[in-house]
Amino acid sequence: MPTTLPSPPRRKNEPVTGEPEVRYAQTSDDIAIAYQVVGSGPVVIWMPSLSNIRAQWRVPALRMAYERLSQDLTLVLYDGRGTGSSDRRPGDLGLDAHLRDLEAVIEAVGADRVNLLGYYHAVATAVAYAATDPQRVDRMLLFGGAARMRDAMSPAQTQALLSLVEQDWDLFADAAATAWLGWGSGENAGRVAEAFRTATTPAVARDWFAEAARLDVSDLLGQVVAPTLVLHRQAAGQIPVEVSRRLAEGLRNGTLVELEGTTPTLFVEGGARDLAMVSRWFLTGEVCRDSASAPAPTALTALTTREQDVLRLIATGRTNASVARDLGITEHTVERHAANLYRKLGVRSRAEATAWAIRNGAD
Question: What positions does the domain HTH luxR-type occupy (predicted)?
């Protein structure tokens, strides 16, 4: 049975207030790893790529994702060595080091069994952990990575982005958030860029990406027994679907689902459907392939077509000026549509409208 950790009572659909406490786990090589625990239910470890968990809570779309997932799950977030609030003296950045980070967090949380959500760089680490300690992993969900990470990092667009790490760190952070990960403009994009910018130093990032390109767990795929859902949503110039397909086919119990759209991140394009799929997988092991399985509620149909357009763009963090440009209307008209949709949805601000859109599939 999956481990469920005790937590203070929280009513269904009650949002998380504030930011979870940052705690610290100590690795076997004496590195302090910052982690947070929120929610109740089966334990899901959201494994980090280049992370800063405290800054990520300030990204509206990510915060909504954390809050939604923690309604049904015990969500554990952590910063890998050298990043975020963890020890900034990373030392080794290879696979064994990342496994030590994960092991330290699992031990600190006190979970006998866990589910793993591996994102980009963390995909290889998740595979390696599930292969070497199969009795502790119930299910995995993998996104954006590969058994051989150089397969995911080799496309020209990705290499162009990585070339900015040492040339211009601020430009790298902005480009990673907006151009590569597809966060667009507005508050979400700005906050994601800030999370990248403050995650680590350019020198550590350079070494971190260099080590990532050497990760290869291809020979471990056949040893993974945990049911694994591999999700793919990428633009053509980023990670080819063949990379995700090889990953799923190499696993004993791997299933590939190609998500609609091209934004190479979860919970932005198709946010509510992504959240429904992730929650259902970790709770039941069922794969929800039908995008209609998470339909928008009736309240959305009360909005005019233009109000729905404005809501969708607001939910991506765009400013009124940006929405006006995208729709070919004036800012005053955007403000009028926004006021109308706030009234119809029973919300009072852009933040509440964004939360409503993410939770209810207005994408």
Answer: 296-361
Residue 8 is assigned to a structural domain of this protein: no
Same domain? 209 vs 341: no
**Cβ contact 155:135 at 8 Å:** no
In whole angstroms, what is the distance from residue 197 CA to residue 273 CA? Answer: 29
Residues 6 or more apart whose Cβ sits within 8 Å of residue 78: 25, 33, 34, 35, 36, 45, 46, 47, 48, 51, 53, 86, 101, 105
Domain extent at residue 266: 23-293
pLDDT category of residue 301 using cuts at 50, 70 and 90: low
pTM: 0.76
pLDDT tens figures, 87-144: 998 788 999 999 999 999 999 999 999 999 999 889 999 999 999 999 999 999 999 8
Cβ(267)–Cβ(65) below 8 Å: yes
**Dihedral sign, Cα of residue 288, residue 291, residue 293, residue 297:** positive
Domain boundary among 272, 293, 314: 293
Using the structure block, give the residue that is written with the tokens 């930011």.
19
- Which regions of the chain does DSSP assign to beta strands (E)? 23-26, 32-39, 43-47, 74-78, 114-119, 137-143, 228-232, 254-258
